[in-house]
Design a protein that fits this description.
Chain lengths: 69, 597
Amino acid sequence: MAGSETASTVTGEMNPPGDGEPIHEDAETEEFDPIGTLALIMTYFAILVIAWVYVYFIEFLSRDLTVIG
Amino acid sequence: MSAELEAEPTFVDKFPEEARIIRAAMWGSFLALTLGAIFGIIQTLHRTGLARPFSSVDYYTFLTAHGVFLVISFTIFFLVGLFTWAVVRSLDRPLLNTKITWTWYGMMAVGMTMTGISILAGFTSRIDMSADVLFTFYAPLQAHPLFYTGLVVFIIGTWVAGADWFRTWLAWRDENPGERIPLQTFMVLTTMIMWYIATLAIAASVLLFLLPWSLGLIESVNPTLTRTLFWFFGHPVVYFWLMPAYMLWYTVLPKIAGGRLFSDPLARVVFVLFLLLSTPVGIHHQYLDPGIAEGFKFISMTNTMFLLLPSLLTAFTVVASVEYGARRRGGTGIFGWLRALPWRNPAFTGMMLAGLMFAAGGFSGMINAGLNINYMIHNTIWVPGHFHLTVGTAVALTFMAGAYWLWPQLTNRPLYSPQIGLAQVVLWFIGMALMSNAMHAQGLLGVPRRTAEPEYAGFEYPMAFGGFEELNLQLAIGGTILFVSTVLFIANIVITSWSPKASGLARPLPPALSGPEDAPKVLDNLRLWVGIALVLVFLAYALPLAGIISNSGVFGTGAGTYPVWIDVPTAVAERALAVVTGVTATLVNAVTGVFTL
Ligand code: HEM
Ligand SMILES: [Cu+2]
């Protein structure tokens, strides 16, 4: 038995994907390897690393020590 | 007409009564959004000094109304509407008894009206009532009893709503023995379990302390205790706002992109992780509170960092599902596939921009979460800068985009203008980029939040990334664009509701690429997750609460300051440890008992 997203989702198959916009059906059968996703996530991490380096230089090296209390 | 007969039935065709309740909940939400946006623009112009038509004393009434209407009313009314839709749609069965459904809707509406009146009464001195306690409403700020009573009625309404969905699911389970919980229902149930745990603390805080105190039944309260109970609730509530947005990203966004969800099991894992981890982190909002030992703050920070994991899993799963859609539409290349996506569709673009903003919110969130660097931005306007990216955009913009997709299926009326919708979501993105950027930058200069006149005579903020005045201008321009965007959204929805009906508006959702049959069965064992969640909450909160109470008593010391809690911990820890081990053993027994059920 395929899972339990029963009737309502099975019928979804008959509807054109993408809310009616054209698609390439043949691509569906291919193995899907999310390399584009990997690329975007690596970009995110790159920004993160640059931001941390930036914080280190701007907030800590260029200023006097902040003392609380 | 034959075309009409052939067309797939929409949600409202199949479940007209449920659709009516969902629409009622969403109207409540949109009303709150309208009011919130009006207060938002007033606040923006006031604190930047561009226009101050009202007294600065009233600023706190505006600020409370803005916060409460947006993060309690707008978000939660949308949530209950969306969750009702999700349960009924994914179980493909009506609710058990819509009288109960109308009852909880009525409780929430009446409760929020009471709370709203108590806040708005603060604008006139003719009524002896006010509640300028800000949306965090902890002591020593005190509101009129009507404020707390309304909140209690509202929250009990949400509890009944959760029970309504659980009962509907149980009925479905009897009709479909042995089947996996459908994904959307699974998301609703795990989110509601988290909500039950979280709201226990706020119910205790209001009923035991704040309400009796405001009625004059008790003399004083322990402010640290009510703060801690608030944040016990206050962190999971941010996931309560976020989970409906995640549900839309996981189940609706891939469909609009022309693909389907990449992995159903991963989605389940993410919701379970949020259920387990979202409560034992609340102390990260109290890094600067005296009265809580540093060690507990450190534990809370560690838990918080673990909490990044489910959001990173979400980024992966959702983006991969969208990429799958792009490839099916013929997209190619490492980044080129992005061009193949339906960017003209306001529902798609709105959710994608919301997700992008959420990623940016992740950067400032990591700063907030760090025990040491939090000191740099605590109580500055950086913090509103952060949460206007998360709840104010990731959640709010996703809800608006989701409404563009869902509203036609709830009304059988096509969206009045997808073009205006597209302009609206892009405007929100631009407005928020400006406002939030200016808030973050001012925060680094030390500009305080919750301040009507943040400019001080004889004091200059340091210069960086532009000066104070320049950033004020940016903040005000951003806030104005956001206000315009809200007006466009509301107008589009209102005009849609007057448009003629049409057929063919159904948008069924495809099943996941890797379906629930690939998910380990244990994921659906809700009792197990409840047990573990309670143990984690206990471990995170037992000692800090014991410390707070032993330090200043259940009802506080009456007046004065609260000393830093440095050398008491050892004494308390020893006493509490005995209790902890005893209770933990009982709990562990309970959990293993549940395991074998
Ligand atoms: C029309 C768009 C909006 C504008 C112009 C706006 C503006 C502002 C400003 C300027 C503040 C800071 C006030 C201060 O600290 O002195 C603020 C606070 C806040 N905003 Fe917004 N905002 C908007 C939308 C939203 C949305 C959509 C949400 C949530 C769903 C939200 C939630 C909050 C909260 C919780 C606070 C903090 C209140 C407090 O400190 O007690 N805002 N807003
Ligand atoms: Cu938090």
